[in-house]
Each structure stands twice: as structure tokens, then as C-alpha cells.
């Protein structure tokens, strides 16, 4: 790597795959540039927060539902570089903890003043036609295959 890397960034986040009646609960993420893509409900852990508490909090913030996590499906790690000021680059790694969740109460609503703007149930058969982040596909693959080591085949090393 010949790019000057100044910042190493690690973000730990927890997400939920919530499926009922052949539909998946998704939140629409709004990028800084205004692009909008569907994602799993979830998000970054606060310092000192337990991952289970993170995902339950994030599901409620982004969808209005209360939930409980029923299974740890697996972990996913992504690494990206992006430009910073003065010609430097940030080396970003995201560690994503993916749970299977069950809705226990609440009512569907959209997040306000957050990183998402809509929440909706989508038929599983139509997910491939959605503008979505790759985490949706990773979460669904973990949910379908339930790999013993908690990682989608072919990802990672």
C-alpha cells in the first residue's frame, strides 16, 4: 500500500435479521452524499455498551419496534480506505455482529434525525430488487446457512 494512511478507524456495530411471514424488516440508510439504500436495522456500539443492548436499542430507534435477539448468527468484517484531508487516507475496519431477532412489541415508525429515514417490511423474494447495502445479503446468508464458525463462506481470509 503506497497511500499515506494517517488514521486507523475501527467501528463495532450490531445488527438484527428480523423475519416474519416471509418478510424482512429493513431500514433505509441515508449516506452523507444523500444516497439511500436499505440496510439491516442496527448500528454502532456506544463505548461500554453490550452488543445485545446495542442491537435492541438500534432496532427501536430505527423502526419503532421492541425486540429480543434469539440467536447470534455470526460476525462480518469489512475494510475500506477513503480519502482524508491533505492527501492522506483513512484505513477503516467495520466489525459487524449479526443477530437473529424477534419483534416483541411497538409499532412500525420511521426514525427522525438519525442515519435512516424509513423502515419497512419487504418480501424475501423481492430483496434482490432493492437498492441495498451488502450487509443485507450477508445477514440473509448467515440466517439461511447458519455457518458453524459464524462467517459467510468465502468471506474473510
Structure description:
This protein has 157 residues and is an alpha+beta fold. It has one domain (5-145): Alpha-Beta Complex (Nucleoside Triphosphate Pyrophosphohydrolase). It is built from two helices and seven strands; from the N terminus they run ββββαβββα. It has helices spanning 51-63, 134-145, and strands at 5-20, 23-30, 36-39, 42-44, 65-83, 89-106, 116-123. Strands 1, 2, 3, 4, 5, 6 and 7 form a seven-stranded mixed sheet that branches. A hairpin with a 5-residue loop joins strand 2 and strand 3 (36-39). The longest helix is centred in the middle third of the chain and has 13 residues, at 51-63. It is globular, with a radius of gyration of 16 Å. The mean pLDDT is 92.
Task: Give helix and strand order, one letter per element, not per position.
Answer: EEEEHEEEH
Shape: globular
Number of strands: 7
| CATH C-level class | Alpha Beta
In terms of topology, how is this protein built?
Elements: E1 5-20, E2 23-30, E3 36-39, E4 42-44, H1 51-63, E5 65-83, E6 89-106, E7 116-123, H2 134-145
Parallel strand pairs: 1-6
Antiparallel strand pairs: 1-2, 1-4, 2-3, 2-7, 5-6
What's the short story on this structure?
The protein has 157 residues and is α+β, with helices and mostly antiparallel strands. The protein is built from two helices and seven strands.
Amino acid at each position: 500500500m503506497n497511500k499515506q494512511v494517517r488514521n486507523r478507524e475501527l467501528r463495532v456495530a450490531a445488527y438484527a435479521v428480523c423475519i416474519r411471514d416471509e418478510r424482512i424488516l429493513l431500514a433505509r440508510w441515508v449516506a452523507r452524499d444523500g444516497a439511500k439504500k436499505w440496510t439491516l436495522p442496527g448500528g454502532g456500539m456506544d463505548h461500554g455498551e453490550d452488543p445485545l443492548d446495542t442491537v435492541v436499542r438500534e432496532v427501536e430507534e430505527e423502526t419503532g419496534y421492541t425486540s429480543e435477539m434469539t440467536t447470534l448468527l455470526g460476525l462480518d468484517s469489512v475494510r475500506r480506505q477513503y480519502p482524508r484531508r491533505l492527501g492522506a487516507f483513512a484505513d477503516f475496519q467495520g466489525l459487524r455482529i449479526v443477530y437473529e431477532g424477534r419483534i416483541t412489541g411497538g409499532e412500525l415508525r420511521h426514525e427522525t434525525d438519525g442515519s435512516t429515514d424509513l423502515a419497512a417490511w419487504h418480501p424475501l423474494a423481492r430483496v434482490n430488487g432493492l437498492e441495498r447495502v451488502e450487509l443485507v445479503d450477508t445477514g440473509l446468508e448467515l440466517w439461511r446457512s447458519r455457518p458453524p464458525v459464524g462467517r459467510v463462506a468465502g468471506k474473510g481470509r
